[in-house]
Amino acid sequence: MVGGDQIVEQYGRRPWTDFIMRVASYNIRKSVGLDRKRNPERILDVLNEINADVVFLQEVDRRIGERASTLSSELLAQHTDYHAADITIREHSLGWHGNAILVRKEIEFQKAWRIELPTLEPRGAIAADILVAGTTVRCVATHLGLIARIRKAQIKKIANALHLEPDDPPTIIAGDFNEWRKSDIHTELFGDGYKMIDPQPSFHSALPFAALDRIVISKDIEFLKSDVHRSKKSKVASDHLPIWADLKLPQD
């Protein structure tokens, strides 16, 4: 720790020889920071600090009008090494219902799809299969509802949607679960094949007290370490702090 800011080990571009990758999840609040300024470049600076290989984003798009994204493909190309899953159904959006999945440019998207969720407000989930070191990895990004019974129904819908897929690759589910309790109910609903990485407080970024942001992985993935990313920029860029985890993929 230096000056209260977190130092994160930086992963450079590297060949996929160790099957280890870093994932991050971040609710960016439409790129509006605690200073009330919409600053997408600042969000991208935070992502570059974390240097993850796969990023799950929430609240990327605005909720009214054209639902335009606060992050664009052009901005990603100019300021980062990421490209986004092609999932949008609106011309000016980056994701769907505010969810987006970013991966490093050398990682290939094999397919991407949307998962409709039962909800009282605009919510959804997106999924993408990516190819990492010759291994297919399934990534699911979501932003769950505010009401507990709705969240349970949404998780069941995601779990059922994954079970309906013809294959069963290593899977990572991440996002803003809106769960204020440090509970294992989510992994119980996803099923025995999943485990939750110990949730840590990431909200509110000014004084974190609630672990709203979660990462769930299938049991064939080895968990190495995780943390909440606290830096000078991340403490102002959104009302959530990003979370990250280092994972080791199964080898054939």
Secondary structure layout:
Layout: E1 20-27, H1 40-50, E2 54-58, H2 73-79, E3 82-84, E4 100-104, E5 108-116, E6 124-132, E7 135-143, H3 148-164, E8 171-176, H4 185-190, E9 194-196, E10 213-218, E11 222-228, H5 234-237, E12 243-248
Parallel strand pairs: 1-2, 7-8
Antiparallel strand pairs: 1-12, 2-4, 3-4, 5-6, 6-7, 8-10, 9-10, 11-12
Task: Explain the overall architecture.
The strands form two sheets. The chain has a six-stranded mixed sheet with strand order 3-4-2-1-12-11. A six-stranded mixed sheet has the order 5-6-7-8-10-9. Helix 3 (148-164) links the parallel strand 7 and strand 8. The protein has five helices and twelve strands. It is globular, with a radius of gyration of 17 Å. Helix content is 18%, strand content 30%. The mean pLDDT is 88.
- How would the global form be characterised? globular
User: Order of strands across the widest beta sheet?
Assistant: 3-4-2-1-12-11
Please tell me the overall pLDDT. 88
The level 1 CATH classification is Alpha Beta
List keywords for this structure.
6-stranded mixed sheet; 252 residues; 5 helices; Deoxyribonuclease I, Chain A; 30% strand; globular; 18% helix; alpha+beta
